[in-house]
């Protein structure tokens, strides 16, 4: 058996920042420490922090007054920030800067009187946060049929934005349909698709033709992880999305298979290596790493933590 390791894979800069923010907050403030929604969409990561005393909540009302709350990498709506202020919470914002960029674009377009079409998945944390910036002005679409059903006349002042974790392939047709229906539609200066999302997808597209099976480490509620598995299946490959090695089934594999392994932007590298170790043990697999694109992006800790010192650390 051969294992092809896709690069880049796993944690992106936004996820690294969010997890480092939570680690630092634990050291600074201790527990109980609250996170509004999952810090990132990865079950093992959430379970690990839960065991350390972090409490993940779906409503600000669940948090006792005066406590510390972190906002997840996916961002939150202004209403959530207002609720935190009313409860006198110490709020630490771990929103990915690329998501913040989309929020700022929504605010700008709304102030300028645009109707905003947001391309995204209904119910996704990032979509809820973005729509919350201008709920009166934003209309969500998920596919081309939704575009065809938009009620606005073609001379309306209209703009579009996209959820960052969608694939380019997933949005290109929708954007084309929007531009056909609304020839004067405005859009962001740069595509809102996250660099990490795009890079991981390109790696799967380039490397999957040489594999029989594609394993994607990531959680079922991770949009970008789901897309990686879908891309592999579109290439005609057997693709499995799994959180940990415990979900592997030996009958998936044959001794002569070539297995491509990648990971969504919120999946820890440890989970990848455990799968590699399993295949090495069970099938005497050899490992080859392929770099499709280098990544050198990093984001600083939120301003709420800058300048604070953890006891015992300089």
UniProtKB/TrEMBL annotation:
Binding, [4Fe-4S] cluster: 12, 96, 194
Cofactor note: Binds 1 [4Fe-4S] cluster per subunit.
Cofactor(s) needed by this chain: [4Fe-4S] cluster
Keyword RNA-binding among UniProt keywords: no
EC code: 1.17.7.4
Cross-referenced PANTHER family: 4-HYDROXY-3-METHYLBUT-2-ENYL DIPHOSPHATE REDUCTASE (PTHR30426:SF0)
Reaction catalysis annotation: dimethylallyl diphosphate + 2 oxidized [2Fe-2S]-[ferredoxin] + H2O = (2E)-4-hydroxy-3-methylbut-2-enyl diphosphate + 2 reduced [2Fe-2S]-[ferredoxin] + 2 H(+); isopentenyl diphosphate + 2 oxidized [2Fe-2S]-[ferredoxin] + H2O = (2E)-4-hydroxy-3-methylbut-2-enyl diphosphate + 2 reduced [2Fe-2S]-[ferredoxin] + 2 H(+)
Function recorded in the entry: Catalyzes the conversion of 1-hydroxy-2-methyl-2-(E)-butenyl 4-diphosphate (HMBPP) into a mixture of isopentenyl diphosphate (IPP) and dimethylallyl diphosphate (DMAPP). Acts in the terminal step of the DOXP/MEP pathway for isoprenoid precursor biosynthesis.
Binding positions (isopentenyl diphosphate): 41, 74, 124, 222-224, 266
Record-listed dimethylallyl diphosphate binding positions: 41, 74, 124, 222-224, 266
Gene that this sequence comes from: ispH
Pathway: Isoprenoid biosynthesis; dimethylallyl diphosphate biosynthesis; dimethylallyl diphosphate from (2E)-4-hydroxy-3-methylbutenyl diphosphate: step 1/1; Isoprenoid biosynthesis; isopentenyl diphosphate biosynthesis via DXP pathway; isopentenyl diphosphate from 1-deoxy-D-xylulose 5-phosphate: step 6/6
GO biological process terms, semicolon-separated: dimethylallyl diphosphate biosynthetic process; isopentenyl diphosphate biosynthetic process, methylerythritol 4-phosphate pathway; terpenoid biosynthetic process
A GO molecular-function annotation: 4 iron, 4 sulfur cluster binding
NCBIfam families associated with the record: ispH_lytB, PRK01045.1-2, PRK01045.1-4
First-level EC class: oxidoreductase
Active-site residues, as the UniProt record annotates them: 126 (proton donor)
Record's protein name: 4-hydroxy-3-methylbut-2-enyl diphosphate reductase
Cited Gene3D superfamilies: 3.40.50.11270, 4-hydroxy-3-methylbut-2-enyl diphosphate reductase, catalytic domain
Keywords: 4Fe-4S, Iron, Iron-sulfur, Isoprene biosynthesis, Metal-binding, Oxidoreductase
Organism listed in the record: Telmatocola sphagniphila
Lineage summary: Bacteria, Pseudomonadati, Planctomycetota, Planctomycetia, Gemmatales
Binding site for (2E)-4-hydroxy-3-methylbut-2-enyl diphosphate: 41, 74, 124, 164, 222-224, 266
Family per record: Belongs to the IspH family.
Source species, domain of life: Bacteria
């Amino acid at each position: 058996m051969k294992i092809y390791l896709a690069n880049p894979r796993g944690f992106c800069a936004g996820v690294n920042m969010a997890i480092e923010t939570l680690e630092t907050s634990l050291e600074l403030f201790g527990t109980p420490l609250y996170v509004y929604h999952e810090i990132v969409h990865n079950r093992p990561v959430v379970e690990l922090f839960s065991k350390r005393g972090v409490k993940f909540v779906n409503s600000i009302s669940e948090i006792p007054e005066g406590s510390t709350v972190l906002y997840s990498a996916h961002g939150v709506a202004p209403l959530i920030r207002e609720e935190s202020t009313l409860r006198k919470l110490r709020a630490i914002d771990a929103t990915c800067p690329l998501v913040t960029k989309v929020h700022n674009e929504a605010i700008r377009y709304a102030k300028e009187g645009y109707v905003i079409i947001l391309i995204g998945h209904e119910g996704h944390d990032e979509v809820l946060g973005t729509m919350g910036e201008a709920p009166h002005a934003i209309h969500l679409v998920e596919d081309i049929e939704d575009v065809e059903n938009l009620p606005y006349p073609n001379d309306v002042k209209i703009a579009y934005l996209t959820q960052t974790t969608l694939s380019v392939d997933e949005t290109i047709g929708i954007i084309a349909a929007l531009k056909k229906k609304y020839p004067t539609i405005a859009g962001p200066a740069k595509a809102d698709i996250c660099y990490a999302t795009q890079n991981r997808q390109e790696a799967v597209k380039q490397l999957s033709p040489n594999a029989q099976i594609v394993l994607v480490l990531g959680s079922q509620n991770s949009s970008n992880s789901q897309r990686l598995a879908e891309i592999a299946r579109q290439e005609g490959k057997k693709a499995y999305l799994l959180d940990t090695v415990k979900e592997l089934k030996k009958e998936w594999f044959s001794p002569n298979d070539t297995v491509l392994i990648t990971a969504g932007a919120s999946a820890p590298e440890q989970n990848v290596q455990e799968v590699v170790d399993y295949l090495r043990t069970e099938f005497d697999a050899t490992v080859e790493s392929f770099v499709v694109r280098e990544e050198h992006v990093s984001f600083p800790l939120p301003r709420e933590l800058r300048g604070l010192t953890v006891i015992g650390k300089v």
